[in-house]
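Example (one chain per record):
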Amino acid sequence: MMVVGLTGGIGSGKTTIASMFAKQGVPVYNSDKEAKKLMNSSKKLQISIKDLFGKEAYKKRKLNRSFIAEKVFSDKNLLEQLNSIVHPVVRKHFTSWVAKQESPYVIQEAAIIFEQGNQDFYDKIILVTAPEDERIDRILKRDVDQNRSKIEQRIKNQLPDSKKIELADFVIENIDLENTKLRVVAVHNALLDNS
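Predicted structure:
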Protein backbone atom coordinates (compact mmCIF):
# COMPACT_ATOMS: atom_id res chain seq x y z
CA MET A 1 0.00 0.00 0.00
CA MET A 2 1.28 3.42 -0.96
CA VAL A 3 1.58 6.03 1.83
CA VAL A 4 0.98 9.58 0.63
CA GLY A 5 1.71 12.70 2.65
CA LEU A 6 -0.60 15.70 2.29
CA THR A 7 0.95 18.92 3.52
CA GLY A 8 0.75 22.69 3.19
CA GLY A 9 1.12 25.85 5.22
CA ILE A 10 -1.43 26.96 7.79
CA GLY A 11 -4.61 28.17 6.06
CA SER A 12 -3.74 26.56 2.71
CA GLY A 13 -6.79 24.28 2.91
CA LYS A 14 -5.22 20.88 3.67
CA THR A 15 -8.33 19.64 5.46
CA THR A 16 -10.59 20.73 2.58
CA ILE A 17 -8.35 18.87 0.13
CA ALA A 18 -8.19 15.83 2.45
CA SER A 19 -12.01 15.67 2.51
CA MET A 20 -12.04 15.74 -1.32
CA PHE A 21 -9.72 12.72 -1.36
CA ALA A 22 -11.91 11.01 1.25
CA LYS A 23 -14.88 11.50 -1.11
CA GLN A 24 -12.85 9.55 -3.70
CA GLY A 25 -12.78 6.67 -1.20
CA VAL A 26 -9.23 7.27 0.05
CA PRO A 27 -8.61 6.61 3.79
CA VAL A 28 -7.31 9.87 5.32
CA TYR A 29 -5.49 10.23 8.65
CA ASN A 30 -5.59 13.76 10.10
CA SER A 31 -2.39 14.10 12.15
CA ASP A 32 -3.48 17.27 13.98
CA LYS A 33 -6.79 15.78 15.15
CA GLU A 34 -5.17 12.50 16.15
CA ALA A 35 -2.32 14.30 17.97
CA LYS A 36 -4.88 16.31 19.98
CA LYS A 37 -6.76 13.11 20.88
CA LEU A 38 -3.53 11.37 21.89
CA MET A 39 -2.37 14.36 23.99
CA ASN A 40 -5.63 14.07 25.93
CA SER A 41 -5.74 10.26 26.20
CA SER A 42 -2.11 9.11 26.54
CA LYS A 43 -0.87 9.26 30.15
CA LYS A 44 2.73 8.99 28.90
CA LEU A 45 2.29 12.03 26.63
CA GLN A 46 0.56 14.00 29.38
CA ILE A 47 3.45 13.43 31.79
CA SER A 48 6.04 14.49 29.16
CA ILE A 49 4.04 17.60 28.21
CA LYS A 50 3.60 18.61 31.88
CA ASP A 51 7.35 18.09 32.40
CA LEU A 52 8.01 20.48 29.51
CA PHE A 53 5.36 23.17 30.20
CA GLY A 54 4.33 22.69 33.83
CA LYS A 55 0.93 21.86 35.29
CA GLU A 56 -0.73 24.70 33.36
CA ALA A 57 -0.40 22.54 30.23
CA TYR A 58 -3.65 20.81 31.25
CA LYS A 59 -6.91 22.25 32.57
CA LYS A 60 -9.48 19.83 33.99
CA ARG A 61 -7.52 16.92 32.44
CA LYS A 62 -7.74 18.47 28.96
CA LEU A 63 -4.85 19.96 27.00
CA ASN A 64 -4.69 23.74 27.53
CA ARG A 65 -4.22 24.45 23.83
CA SER A 66 -4.21 28.26 24.01
CA PHE A 67 -1.55 28.22 26.77
CA ILE A 68 0.68 25.83 24.80
CA ALA A 69 0.16 27.68 21.48
CA GLU A 70 1.17 30.95 23.17
CA LYS A 71 4.39 29.32 24.43
CA VAL A 72 5.50 27.39 21.34
CA PHE A 73 4.81 29.93 18.62
CA SER A 74 7.06 32.50 20.28
CA ASP A 75 9.79 29.94 21.07
CA LYS A 76 11.01 27.73 18.22
CA ASN A 77 13.10 25.59 20.58
CA LEU A 78 10.05 24.81 22.73
CA LEU A 79 8.05 23.94 19.60
CA GLU A 80 10.79 21.53 18.51
CA GLN A 81 10.80 19.90 21.95
CA LEU A 82 7.01 19.48 21.88
CA ASN A 83 7.19 17.99 18.37
CA SER A 84 9.90 15.55 19.48
CA ILE A 85 7.57 14.31 22.23
CA VAL A 86 4.33 14.12 20.22
CA HIS A 87 5.44 13.08 16.71
CA PRO A 88 6.84 9.62 17.55
CA VAL A 89 3.57 8.73 19.32
CA VAL A 90 1.51 9.96 16.35
CA ARG A 91 3.80 8.06 13.92
CA LYS A 92 3.27 4.81 15.86
CA HIS A 93 -0.51 5.40 15.93
CA PHE A 94 -0.53 6.18 12.18
CA THR A 95 1.48 3.04 11.34
CA SER A 96 -1.00 0.83 13.20
CA TRP A 97 -3.89 2.68 11.48
CA VAL A 98 -2.32 2.03 8.04
CA ALA A 99 -2.10 -1.71 8.80
CA LYS A 100 -5.91 -1.80 9.16
CA GLN A 101 -6.65 -0.08 5.82
CA GLU A 102 -7.52 -1.79 2.56
CA SER A 103 -6.94 0.65 -0.25
CA PRO A 104 -4.41 1.21 -3.06
CA TYR A 105 -3.11 4.18 -1.06
CA VAL A 106 -3.71 6.14 2.15
CA ILE A 107 -3.15 9.80 2.95
CA GLN A 108 -1.62 11.28 6.07
CA GLU A 109 -2.52 14.94 6.43
CA ALA A 110 0.42 16.55 8.26
CA ALA A 111 1.39 20.22 8.43
CA ILE A 112 5.16 20.03 8.78
CA ILE A 113 6.42 17.06 6.76
CA PHE A 114 9.32 18.99 5.19
CA GLU A 115 10.08 21.06 8.30
CA GLN A 116 10.58 17.81 10.24
CA GLY A 117 12.60 16.19 7.44
CA ASN A 118 10.02 13.37 7.22
CA GLN A 119 9.59 13.34 3.44
CA ASP A 120 11.43 10.01 3.05
CA PHE A 121 8.70 8.28 5.08
CA TYR A 122 6.22 8.81 2.20
CA ASP A 123 5.98 7.24 -1.24
CA LYS A 124 4.53 10.48 -2.64
CA ILE A 125 3.82 13.95 -1.23
CA ILE A 126 1.02 16.33 -2.20
CA LEU A 127 1.55 20.01 -1.37
CA VAL A 128 -1.43 22.35 -0.99
CA THR A 129 -0.69 26.02 -1.69
CA ALA A 130 -2.58 29.31 -1.58
CA PRO A 131 -1.49 32.97 -1.55
CA GLU A 132 -0.40 34.15 1.91
CA ASP A 133 -3.05 36.92 2.16
CA GLU A 134 -5.78 34.41 1.36
CA ARG A 135 -4.39 31.97 3.95
CA ILE A 136 -4.37 34.70 6.62
CA ASP A 137 -7.98 35.68 5.77
CA ARG A 138 -9.10 32.03 6.01
CA ILE A 139 -7.50 31.61 9.43
CA LEU A 140 -9.00 34.87 10.73
CA LYS A 141 -12.47 33.65 9.65
CA ARG A 142 -11.90 30.15 11.07
CA ASP A 143 -10.19 30.95 14.41
CA VAL A 144 -11.75 33.83 16.31
CA ASP A 145 -8.95 33.85 18.92
CA GLN A 146 -6.27 34.52 16.27
CA ASN A 147 -4.90 37.85 15.11
CA ARG A 148 -2.84 38.76 12.04
CA SER A 149 0.52 39.01 13.85
CA LYS A 150 0.07 35.60 15.55
CA ILE A 151 -0.78 34.02 12.19
CA GLU A 152 2.19 35.68 10.48
CA GLN A 153 4.43 34.30 13.26
CA ARG A 154 3.11 30.78 12.64
CA ILE A 155 3.64 31.15 8.89
CA LYS A 156 7.26 32.21 9.55
CA ASN A 157 7.76 28.97 11.53
CA GLN A 158 6.93 26.97 8.39
CA LEU A 159 9.08 26.47 5.31
CA PRO A 160 8.03 28.78 2.42
CA ASP A 161 5.98 27.23 -0.39
CA SER A 162 8.74 28.00 -2.91
CA LYS A 163 11.03 25.52 -1.10
CA LYS A 164 8.30 22.93 -0.55
CA ILE A 165 7.23 22.94 -4.23
CA GLU A 166 10.72 21.67 -5.17
CA LEU A 167 10.30 18.72 -2.78
CA ALA A 168 6.67 17.76 -3.52
CA ASP A 169 5.48 15.19 -6.09
CA PHE A 170 2.16 16.98 -6.69
CA VAL A 171 1.06 20.57 -6.07
CA ILE A 172 -2.59 21.56 -5.65
CA GLU A 173 -3.16 25.31 -5.75
CA ASN A 174 -6.24 25.87 -3.60
CA ILE A 175 -7.78 29.14 -4.73
CA ASP A 176 -10.80 28.33 -6.90
CA LEU A 177 -12.79 25.40 -5.44
CA GLU A 178 -13.92 24.01 -8.80
CA ASN A 179 -10.37 23.96 -10.20
CA THR A 180 -9.17 22.44 -6.93
CA LYS A 181 -11.71 19.58 -7.22
CA LEU A 182 -10.55 18.85 -10.78
CA ARG A 183 -6.91 18.83 -9.66
CA VAL A 184 -7.73 16.44 -6.77
CA VAL A 185 -9.33 13.98 -9.23
CA ALA A 186 -6.30 14.25 -11.55
CA VAL A 187 -3.86 13.62 -8.66
CA HIS A 188 -6.03 10.75 -7.37
CA ASN A 189 -5.98 9.09 -10.80
CA ALA A 190 -2.20 9.57 -11.09
CA LEU A 191 -1.73 7.96 -7.66
CA LEU A 192 -3.95 5.02 -8.61
CA ASP A 193 -1.81 4.54 -11.75
CA ASN A 194 1.32 4.51 -9.56
CA SER A 195 0.02 2.15 -6.90
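Caption: Residues 76-99 form the longest helix (24 residues).
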